[in-house]
Design goal:
This protein is an alpha/beta fold. The protein has a single domain, classed as Rossmann fold, CATH 3.40.50. It is built from 4 helices and 7 strands. Strands 1, 2, 3, 4, 5, 6 and 7 form a 7-stranded mixed β-sheet that branches. Strand 5 and strand 6 form a beta hairpin. Helix 2 packs across helix 4. The termini are far apart. Pfam families: ABC_trans_aux.
Length: 199
């Protein structure tokens, strides 16, 4: 009996090693990841003193479940969603879009932006919202970005507005063409929001 247990021990030790080659503990990361690129970026500077009410606090938008991962959704019908094969954002769409909004607001208004955690330091306008669409409409072969924004201005006035933009997908829907089209539509929305905030 003791001899049999000793004989089985090497096989038992090898089992986890053999299984490791068959089991995957997470999705395979594609060779390239997508990101948003702003049309213009604020230049480096020597720093500035933030006057009260000057900085804009930009929150991370909420998002529906289809945008709660790093994949690129494609609407294939009124109630159907697929994802672009091998396409994956480097971060959650809501995080990428918030950073694009902040950069665009700074460039177009000349006002610095801060995260919600830093908002108490500047006590300026506060921008929040919900990212409704951030993907591809297969029927129209276009990227679509939609953002419901809520802005609390310095005087306490609360404004709400929906911003939307589309951009054509060049050729077949691939990770490259989808990423380029969504980037264009997202920049369009960010410019609209920045101009609204800067009024």
């Amino acid at each position: 009996m003791k001899t049999r247990i000793l004989a089985l021990r090497p096989a038992l030790l090898l089992a986890p090693i053999l299984l490791a080659g068959c089991v995957s503990f997470g999705a395979k990361v594609p060779p390239q990841l997508l990101r948003l690129s702003p049309v213009a970026e604020a230049p480096a500077n020597a720093g500035e003193v933030l006057g009260k009410g000057l900085a804009v606090a930009v929150s991370y938008p909420s998002a529906p479940i289809e945008l709660s991962n790093n994949r690129v959704p494609v609407r294939t019908g009124a109630t159907q969603i697929a994802y672009v094969k091998n396409a994956q954002w480097i971060d959650a769409p809501a995080h990428l879009f918030r950073d694009l909004l902040a950069e665009t607001i700074t460039v177009r208004t000349g006002r610095p932006t801060v995260t919600p955690r830093e908002a108490s330091l500047a006590q300026g306008p506060r921008l929040a919202g919900r990212l409704l669409a951030f993907g591809i409409d297969a029927g129209a072969n276009r990227a679509a970005v939609s953002y419901d924004a809520t802005l609390v201005r310095n005087d306490g006035q609360i404004e709400a507005r929906r911003f939307t933009a589309t951009a054509p997908v060049s050729g077949a829907i691939t990770e490259a063409s989808a990423g380029t089209a969504i980037n264009a539509a997202a920049n369009d929305v960010a410019v609209q929001v920045a101009d609204w905030v800067g009024r």
